[in-house]
Specification:
This protein is mainly alpha-helical. Helix content is 43%, strand content 7%. The protein is globular, with a radius of gyration of 12 Å. InterPro entries: ABC-3C_MC6.
């Protein structure tokens, strides 16, 4: 689910996941770097309150790209366009 609704918590939506992923991108990173960082939190007990798989991470990154929050350089590194 892209947006939260009556039965979907914000943390379960791609919008909420995108916010968490955006906070990881403080320097240029690859998709693998972002996934490994998120999977550390995803697998811990004190981490993100909703489980997301790799497909959801890719969809959230696509969403962030479409709204202009991130951009990709010629080397394939993802940059935070908000900071």
């Amino acid at each position: 689910m892209i947006l939260p609704s009556k039965h979907i918590r914000f943390s379960e939506s791609l919008l909420g996941l995108g916010g968490i992923l955006l906070s990881f991108i403080n320097e240029p990173k690859t998709v693998d770097d972002i996934w490994f960082k998120y999977s550390e939190i995803n697998n811990s007990k004190k981490g993100f309150p909703a489980y997301h798989n790799f497909d959801n991470v890719i969809l959230a990154l696509n969403y962030l790209y479409l709204i202009g929050a991130i951009f990709i350089d010629n080397n394939g590194k993802i940059h935070n366009a908000v900071n």
